[in-house]
Write a structure and sequence with these properties.
This protein is about 30% helix and about 20% strand. The chain is α/β, with parallel strands linked by helices. It has one domain: Alpha-Beta Complex (Spore Coat Polysaccharide Biosynthesis Protein SpsA, Chain A), CATH 3.90.550. The protein starts with 5 loop residues before the first strand and ends with a helix.
Length: about 220
């Protein structure tokens, strides 16, 4: 049996209003959130589609600088799509992206404010794929998190829904066969919305790095 085609959908369209800074371009270890996540996704996905909205030109420029250099073999595997209706909410951005991803067997659906997940998490996540399920969601300490995987069978439900719909309602559809995967990565619950969230996240990362340093 051939391997399924897994493509990633990265949503980077919002205002970042509560942050006071533009989340996709915040730097962590000298790399922006959007480029950090994209690099990790490319290690397990065939293509990454980034849906932009607010400050779309800045996000697209960052992606060009990192991935679209003349000698970069990843150039053909990353694309940006602008959602002119990004003010209407996230669901419209999901629809814009999925409309161009018809060759996907599975979609890895990711937010731009989750840069802390380790590379191993993504490898473990795609290893959970089973054809008898349509939706795979990670769980940490009995709390459901992100990113999630969903099969191509879910895509028509999303595209045929109104643009003000919600992904939670798609997941809650009884026809969507769900698998919950228990992981030890607390970063699936990551939600960096404010400067306080960011400081807490950076402090935790530094603490982990210090613990891992050789003595």
């Amino acid at each position: 049996m051939s391997k399924p085609v897994i493509n990633a959908l990265l949503i980077s369209a919002g205002y970042s209003g509560r942050m006071g800074d533009f989340k996709p371009l915040i730097k962590l270890d000298n790399k922006t959130f959007v480029s950090t996540i994209t690099e990790k996704l490319l290690s397990v996905c065939h293509e990454v589609t980034i849906v932009t909205g607010y400050r779309n030109f800045n996000v697209e420029e960052e992606i060009r600088n990192v991935f679209h250099s003349e000698n970069n073999e990843l150039v053909s595997r990353v694309k940006c799509l602008f959602n002119p209706d990004y003010k209407d909410g996230m669901f419209s951005s999901v629809q814009i992206g999925l409309a161009t991803m018809q060759n996907s067997d599975w979609v890895l659906f990711h937010f731009v404010d989750q840069p802390g997940l380790p590379q191993s998490f993504y490898e473990e996540l795609i290893a959970q794929i089973e054809d008898r399920y349509d939706w795979i969601q990670p769980v940490y300490e009995m709390k459901e998190g992100h990113p999630v995987l969903f099969k191509k069978t879910v895509v028509p439900k999303i595209l045929e829904s109104p643009s003000n719909y919600r992904m939670k309602l798609i997941r809650g559809d009884d026809e969507v066969r769900k698998k919950y995967w228990f992981t030890d990565s607390k970063y699936i619950l990551e939600d960096i919305d404010t400067q306080d969230d960011l400081r807490k996240f950076i402090d935790e990362k530094e603490e982990v790095n210090n613990l891992n340093e050789p003595r």
